[in-house]
Amino acid sequence: MAESAKYCKELKDRFRASSFDAFDDREKLALLLSYSTFARDVRVSAKELQLGFGTVRGVMDATGEELASLGGLGDTTATFFHLLKEVAGIYLLGSLVGSVLEASLGELIDYLHLTLSTERVEKFLAVYIDSDDKVVAVDLLHEGTINRTAVYPRKAIERAFARKACSVIFVHNHPSGDSTPSRSDGELAVALERAAASVELRVVDHLIIGRNGHYSARAGVPGQRPR
Fold it and tell me: Which in 73, 170, 187, 219 has the greatest CB count within 10 A?
């Protein structure tokens, strides 16, 4: 394990000097593993992770069970990667709230893909925007099977009033990974549009997040997942 410890120190020194510049994915994974894996050679574990999931993003998107089953990494390492992803979501959300929507649309898409693209259950969110076109909140309104009866338009409107919002973007994910809108998605969008129009709440867009892309009702075309 002395060689592994030496390798970890070299990676940490490189990171302190120039962040992740010139690191390949395996080296990035090895450096991350050095903070959570102590009983195995991080070079071996990093190789197994790369072979199993391809990229750092692939590892971050893996479930705890998938990580634990690959190379015997265990619960501690699986929890560590889950923690990193959650912290990244908190960071992105913190930069979104208070920002002008037009200028931060890319960051919003990044945040939604990070937090929704690999969810195993459906989640319905509302991105609320004020009169200055600034994002004031991203609220989870429903978790579970989504249809017109599950996502009550009244709840979305009540939350908009509470947030003093003038506009909203409705968002949900497809656990199947396919972001193509379904018939029920269209029915839900119509119900939400009508409810919003009745109180002069502007619906900016309806977004559907898939595993590798998203669908924008406003654009009418699928978008690619950020890389």
Answer: 170
